[in-house]
Amino acid sequence: MPGKTARRMIVATAVVCHANMIQMLVKIYFSYFPQMQRIRITDNEAEARTWVEEQLQEIAHTGS
Predict the structure, then answer these.
(1) Considering the domain boundaries, does residue 2 fall inside one?
(2) pTM for this model (two decimals)
(3) Coil, strand, or helix at residue 62?
(4) Distance (Å, whole) CA 9 – CA 55
(5) Comparing C-alpha atoms, which of 23, 53, 25 is closest to residue 38?
């Protein structure tokens, strides 16, 4: 619609960490600071990208 701006927001975040210690620290961070969006922590970038795409498709179909 003209004159309306689209509301942008983060709906899913994938964090790729190759070190177990970093993964543990990221999990601790998110446990103390919960996020409103979906979170995935993995050591595989391809898996992370696939997961984000799946989340975007699911949200596009369901709206949440």
Answers:
(1) no
(2) 0.79
(3) helix
(4) 14
(5) 53
DSSP per residue, 19-61: SHHHHHHHHHHHHHS--SSEEEEES-HHHHHHHHHHHHHHHHH
Q: How far apart are CA 60 and CA 64, in angstroms?
A: 8
pLDDT band per the 50, 70, 90 thresholds, residue 54: very high
Span 18-30, pLDDT tens digits: 999 999 999 999 9
Q: How far apart are CA 18 and CA 29, in angstroms?
A: 17
Distance from the Cα of residue 52 to its chain's centroid: 6
> Tokens standing for 32?
């103390």
Residue 32 belongs to domain spanning: 12-62
